Amino acid sequence: MSLTSDLEQQYGIYILKIIKVRDVYQISTRSHGVLCLKSYNITEAEMHFITQVFAHLSQNDFKFSPKVLYTSSHSYWITREGVHYMLTNWVKGEHPRFKSRDHFKKGIRLLTKFHSVADGFNAPYIPLERIRYNQLKEHITLDRTLLADNPKMKLMTSICNEALNNLDNVTVVKAIADEESLMGFTHGDYNYPNLVLDTAGSMHMIDFDNTALHVRMEDLSHILHRNLAWHGHEMLRWIEYYDSKRPLSKGDLHVLHTLLLVPYPIIRALKQKKRINRHHITIPTVHRIKEYRNELKQLL
């Protein structure tokens, strides 16, 4: 039986057309409108985790995450040859352009709404792979090792060392413990490719593949790194905007300072096997890094 036939049989739908869009399929149906079909090559326990995250967001009136379509037997997904497939609503629109101040503002505002409900997660079982509060030291250590292998990255390695030292700061340790006690979770890859601006101007979150129980400042640091790399002053302005919508604690700011110290843009480029030159990896000057670190100190 083909995947199309399997979907029709198990969901009780009639499929009119299927179009591949990036890593998902847009499915037009006769009675259920346009749907999104996404495959997941993960364990069943992790699938349960992701669907319970969706349920938690829905129960807390968060309207901007995927809405799961249940099968006829009220299951969240179907499985074929070890791969899980889930159907959700299709958001008609386009990815935001974060060079636009208005779009970026909506992205930060949506993140504050998401983080405001992304705690108190209560699932009967949470797989260890999705509990990441205490993995920061391991991840930054691995990043430092990647940088240390390249003689041109001596300064970047020293910044990683500073971030690692910060993880032992009492305020940071307590902040991470607080997040763990609140059972807070992150999106895990919060940036414009995983956001959709609908035709009415509202922004929606998609692709929860990397969602995990983690410090929520990970999401904020990610979007700032990806769009404002090495521009500490601009980062501070948007952190202030985030704080105006969802107040940040002293601990949050210390964790955020630590995460923003990590030279994520360089590490990401190295992991993507890009060469170190002007066309692939832009290495900031010593002066720019000094300014950046001084700007970030205003968070403390």
**Termini Cα gap:** 59 Å
H-E order: HEEEHEEEHHHHEEEEHHHHH
Percent of sequence in beta strands? 5-15%
Outline the low-pLDDT stretches: none
Total strand count, please?
A: 10
User: How would you characterize the largest beta sheet?
Assistant: 5 strands, antiparallel
Shape: elongated
Helix percent reads 40-55%
The average pLDDT value, as a whole number, equals: 94
What does the radius of gyration come to? 21 Å
Query: Structural class per helix/strand content?
Result: alpha+beta
The tally of helices reads 11
Strand order of the largest sheet: 1-2-3-5-4
Q: Mind explaining what this structure looks like?
A:
The protein is 46% helix and 14% strand. It has 11 helices and 10 strands. The chain has helices at residues 3-11, 44-59, 101-117, 136-148, 154-166, 170-182, 217-227, 232-245, 250-261, 264-271, 286-296, and strands at residues 15-21, 24-29, 34-40, 78-80, 83-89, 93-94, 185-186, 195-198, 203-205, 212-213. It has a 5-stranded antiparallel sheet, covered by helices on one side. A 3-stranded antiparallel sheet has the order 6-8-9, covered by helices on one side. Helix 5 packs antiparallel against helix 9 (250-261). The termini are far apart.
Features:
46% helix; 300 residues; 3-stranded antiparallel sheet; 5-stranded antiparallel sheet; alpha+beta; 10 strands
Topology:
Layout (H helix, E strand, L loop, with lengths): L2 H9 L3 E7 L2 E6 L4 E7 L3 H16 L18 E3 L2 E7 L3 E2 L6 H17 L18 H13 L5 H13 L3 H13 L2 E2 L8 E4 L4 E3 L6 E2 L3 H11 L4 H14 L4 H12 L2 H8 L14 H11 L4
Antiparallel strand pairs: 1-2, 2-3, 3-5, 4-5, 6-8, 7-10, 8-9
